[in-house]
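Bumping my old thread because nobody answered last time. Still need a sequence for this structure:
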């Protein structure tokens, strides 16, 4: 639990928002404990745990009516109050942009950019073919870039 909790929390916070992430993490480890007997060892334990986390996040999102606008983790230490406010606005816009993606694109991008999984691991977690994963990530990035450009977010923000 100590080894995997930070990654599980990051993934949950990016998916359901920081406010609900603690509850999701708790659900993940309860589900993992109960389901450990179903882990066959065909994939890495962390890959299986990411799938359990995504399932718990999906369950938490179904219980709510809308995606969070505060879905990204807070910066570790803002340099100034003005900069912190700017970062909060960018995070809010990014969360709004993520909400416009298909669930499959959002899942693949979150696993890649937030959880730091490689394409093969994402394929194993989602059950999608490697080419499909690459496609979802590329299309998701393009859609995010277009949405953020229309929203006035520049690369240097």
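Sorry it took so long. Here it is:
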């Amino acid at each position: 639990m100590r080894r995997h909790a930070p990654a599980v929390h990051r993934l949950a916070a990016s998916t359901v928002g920081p406010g609900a992430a603690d509850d999701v993490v708790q659900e993940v480890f309860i589900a993992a404990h109960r389901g450990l007997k179903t882990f066959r060892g065909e994939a890495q334990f962390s890959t299986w745990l990411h799938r359990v986390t995504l399932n718990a996040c999906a369950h938490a999102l179904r219980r709510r009516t809308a995606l969070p606008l505060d879905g990204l983790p807070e910066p570790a230490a803002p340099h100034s109050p003005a900069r912190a406010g700017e970062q909060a606005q960018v995070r809010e816009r990014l969360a709004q942009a993520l909400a416009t993606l298909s669930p499959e694109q959002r899942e693949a991008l979150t696993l890649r950019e937030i959880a730091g999984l490689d394409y093969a691991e994402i394929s194993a977690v989602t059950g999608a073919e490697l080419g499909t994963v690459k496609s979802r990530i590329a299309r998701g990035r393009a859609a995010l870039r277009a949405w953020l450009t229309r929203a006035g977010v520049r690369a240097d923000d």
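The longest helix spans residues 130-150. Let me know if any region looks off to you.
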